[in-house]
Amino acid sequence: MIPNELIEKDVIAKADGYQNIEKPEQPTDQTHTPNHENHSADGDRSEIFMQLLGKLTDHDAFYFGAYKVCDLPKIYIDEGFDFYWNTEQAVASGKYLVEEHHGHKQIVKSSNGMKPEIDLSITNFVLFQWFAIIIGAFIFKAAFSKYKKNPDKAPKGFQNAIESLILYVRDEVVRPNIPSRKTADGLLPYFLSLFFFILIMNLTGLIPGAHTATGAIPVTASLAITAFLVINITAMRVSGVGAWFHHLLGGAPWWLAFIMIPIEIIGLLVKPFALTIRLFANMTAGHVILLSLLGVLFFFNSVALSPAITAFSLFIYALELLVAFIQAYLFTILTAIFVGLAIGHHDDHEQAHAH
């Protein structure tokens, strides 16, 4: 047995020896700082794209570009009707508070932290829809005033451009696709409003700092739901309710109804869904590309890339201008085609006199 005193001396000697060994120099805070700064800089640069793309989303205030112009009214239905002119009034009431969630501020109930049951607040996209309505009303009012002053005079300039678009929608979009001339002319105000409303929203979104309302699913879905109602109500009114239900058979025998009716109903629902996604995707894609190009410039922080990015951005911008007209045209003509298909073959004696 080894005496305990010798074991204790040996342990102490080894401990002294370990203490005398030079330990490798530990990195100081200064050696970590550059790496930390690099990671922080990379994180900041990677967030540039998300910050830029976030400008495409809707806001609860009026934003022009990255600048907040003013707050917008807040309208909630939650255990009563609540109306506030701005966020400050909503918070001051004590019923609501502002909560930040994933970098976005939202108003929730102070009692349980949940969102209001129904939120009817005016948003940035709603405001730009109002702008489109006001601009459209002004355009038609100006064209009508010139025509009223000189009804026998050939249109020119601005009046000629508007009348050319109106005649194009009537003669190339609505009448050729709807078999009944009476129905086509009766629906012409709807199709003109649809075409110009979408076109003005698309063009307004191309103004630097403005927002494209058609780049939001709720907006395009509302337009598609309206088109769905127009299509089916027109078919019932022109062909009759019985013919509309018979159309669900798709021309098949009645004993195949259990197969054909679900397929036809799915087809009815797919049409507005396709209209919704097509308009939303095409109007959002161009803005995503433009903002991504701008993000590349900030990401690399290099002036040398600016000529190439500027040239390509101008090309995309010109392409978006073309897409703005194409998408308004496509939404309108597809709606007219769907109305014609829903009506089917319809004998209209007025067509014999058409020219």
Q: Which short descriptors sum up this protein?
A:
355 residues, mainly alpha, 2 domains, two-stranded antiparallel sheet, 10 helices, 7 strands, disordered C terminus
Concise structural overview:
The protein is mainly alpha-helical and 355 residues long.
Descriptive report:
This protein is mostly helical and 355 residues long. The chain folds into two domains: 73-119, no CATH class; 146-348, no CATH class. It contains ten helices and seven strands. The protein has helices spanning 4-20, 29-53, 87-92, 124-149, 158-174, 181-204, 217-239, 241-247, 257-300, 306-343, and strands at 61-64, 67-71, 74-77, 81-84, 96-101, 104-109, 118-119. It has a three-stranded antiparallel beta sheet. Strands 1-2 form a two-stranded antiparallel sheet.
State the domain count. Answer: 2
- Major beta sheet summary: 3 strands, antiparallel
Spans of at least 5 consecutive residues with low confidence: 1-43, 348-355
Oligomer: single chain
Tally of alpha and pi helices: 10
**Would you tell me the overall average pLDDT?**
78
Secondary-structure content class? mainly alpha
Please report the distance between the alpha carbons of the first and last residues.
Answer: 123 Å
Molecular shape? globular
Rg of Cα set: 32 Å
The total strand number stands at 7
Q: Element order, helices and strands?
A: HHEEEEHEEEHHHHHHH
What's the arrangement of secondary structure elements?
Blueprint: H1 4-20, H2 29-53, E1 61-64, E2 67-71, E3 74-77, E4 81-84, H3 87-92, E5 96-101, E6 104-109, E7 118-119, H4 124-149, H5 158-174, H6 181-204, H7 217-239, H8 241-247, H9 257-300, H10 306-343
Antiparallel strand pairs: 1-2, 3-4, 3-7, 5-6
Helix pairs in contact: 2-9, 4-5, 4-6, 5-6, 6-10, 7-8, 7-9, 7-10, 9-10
